[in-house]
């Protein structure tokens, strides 16, 4: 150990830990979570020994780990709270001490902590030898399919093989294409992206391959295409399934012999590029229907990677939310570190038709509207709010009966009101009448639960 923090209000516990570990490194103390986070941000700790009641306050261990991913936690709790200690270990803590503990209990934990830390560093080192540091957040995943995809990326990135990325719109095909490029031998050369579906058929060939002066009406000067711009690097052809038949022929020529010519030109130009293509269409079905060239499909399909939709990788939701919040903090200058746990839980009940792109857009909107340090459900779109309402967890047995009863009432009210407001399109009087209460009572409930009637109005009336 080197730098340690003890988060506790107990003078006896702090004194015992401090005396026992005085030779292991420097030890500091914090009385509350905010102070602990401030100290950790200023100078990250290697080990944090924290009272479970203080650490359980939002945002808990996650905020410390975002500053130093190698930080280790030991939770301190009374024996009647052993269940909480075990839950903390399940969430990432490396051990726990049950009060009252003694010097021997602390000494028994330290050797295992050092072994765990050494193993973590070894695994991270082996991983980092390939992945560049700035991409480490992107490749974090608990999902089996995504782990396999990243292993495939690791295998194919250093080669010059053509890669075909498959998956629904919004699953992150563009990000994966950049990941491949930045871990290839061409990473110092250009990465040129072109959205084929956004360019009219009459212009796609000019965009890809360029044109000579006078090649067509409006071609007043020679213009290089994207393949020339990407010389020595990578070209990413997004929505490659939408290109016209004539463009398919020219793209096939590039894939077959590495040459192309500008529109209106006779000379052959060398295409020194690595091609990564992406599509949300079923190209095999398009080949069967005769709308896509079979030989082009086979040339593109050298190394296919199929990306699962977000609803099939919900275990990565917290990682993704964390990544987007970091980007939003940089973009807008706020300091929102996380979302409310009920929101994360509710996200698991939503279908995510727009996949990761929809998640990013929803979070950005909520981020802009949020005035507290935590994104709550009230600033989410109504469809997502209803999913959050479905996902509100049952109260734990650590609550008193009165607290558990209030928890159930709050969950019921939130779910009931969101459904009712959706039916009435946010009309207060109609909602109050259906609920059998006054408009004044309804407004008080909406304020309590962070609901805004405007979110339930049809778009044309908003």
UniProtKB/TrEMBL annotation:
The modification 4-aspartylphosphate is found at residue 51. InterPro entries: AAA+_ATPase, AAA_lid_NorR, CheY-like_superfamily, Homeodomain-like_sf, P-loop_NTPase, Sig_transdc_resp-reg_receiver, Sigma_54_int, Sigma_54_int_dom_ATP-bd_1. GO terms for biological process: phosphorelay signal transduction system; regulation of DNA-templated transcription. It comes from the Bacteria. Residues 3-114 form the Response regulatory domain. GO terms for molecular function: ATP binding; DNA binding. This is Sigma-54-dependent Fis family transcriptional regulator.
């Amino acid at each position: 150990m080197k730098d340690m923090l003890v988060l506790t209000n107990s003078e006896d516990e702090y004194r015992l830990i401090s005396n026992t570990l005085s030779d292991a490194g420097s030890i500091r103390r914090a009385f509350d979570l905010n102070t602990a986070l401030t100290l950790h941000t200023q100078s990250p700790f290697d080990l944090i020994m924290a009272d479970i009641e203080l650490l359980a306050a939002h945002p808990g261990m996650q905020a410390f780990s975002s500053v130093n991913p190698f930080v280790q936690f030991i939770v301190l709790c009374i024996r009647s709270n052993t269940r909480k200690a075990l839950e903390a270990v399940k969430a990432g803590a490396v051990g726990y001490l049950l009060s009252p503990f003694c010097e021997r209990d602390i000494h028994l934990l330290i050797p295992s902590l050092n072994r765990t830390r050494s193993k973590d560093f070894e695994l991270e080192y082996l991983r980092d030898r390939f992945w560049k540091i700035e991409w480490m957040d992107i490749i974090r995943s608990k999902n089996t399919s995504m782990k396999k995809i990243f292993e495939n990326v690791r295998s194919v990135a250093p080669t010059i093989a053509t890669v075909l990325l498959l998956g629904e719109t919004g699953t992150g095909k563009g990000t994966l294409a950049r990941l491949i490029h930045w871990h290839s031998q061409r990473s110092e050369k250009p990465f040129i992206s072109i959205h084929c579906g956004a360019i009219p058929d009459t212009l796609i060939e000019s965009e890809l391959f360029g044109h000579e002066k006078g090649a067509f009406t409006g071609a007043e000067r020679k213009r290089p295409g994207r393949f020339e711009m990407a010389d020595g690097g990578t070209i990413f052809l997004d929505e490659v399934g939408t290109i016209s038949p004539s463009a398919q022929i020219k793209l096939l020529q590039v894939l077959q012999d590495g040459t192309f010519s500008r529109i209106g030109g006779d000379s052959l130009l060398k295409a020194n590029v690595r091609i990564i293509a992406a599509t949300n269409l079923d190209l095999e079905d398009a080949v069967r229907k005769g709308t896509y060239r079979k030989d082009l499909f086979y040339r593109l399909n050298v190394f296919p990677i199929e990306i699962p939709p977000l609803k099939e990788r919900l275990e990565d939701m917290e990682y993704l939310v964390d990544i987007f919040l970091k980007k939003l903090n940089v973009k807008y200058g706020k300091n929102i570190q996380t979302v409310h746990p009920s929101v994360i839980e509710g996200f698991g009940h939503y279908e995510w038709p727009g996949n990761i792109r929809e998640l990013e857009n929803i979070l950005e909107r909520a981020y802009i509207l949020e005035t507290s340090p935590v994104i709550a459900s009230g600033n989410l779109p109504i469809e997502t709010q209803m999913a959050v309402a479905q996902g509100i967890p049952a109260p734990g047995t650590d609550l008193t009966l009165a607290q558990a009863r209030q928890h159930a009432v709050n969950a019921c009210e939130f779910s009931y009101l969101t459904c009712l407001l959706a039916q009435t399109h946010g009309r207060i009087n109609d909602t109050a009448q259906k609920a059998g209460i006054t408009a004044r009572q309804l407004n008080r409930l909406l304020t309590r639960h962070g609901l805004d009637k405007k979110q339930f109005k049809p778009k044309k009336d908003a």
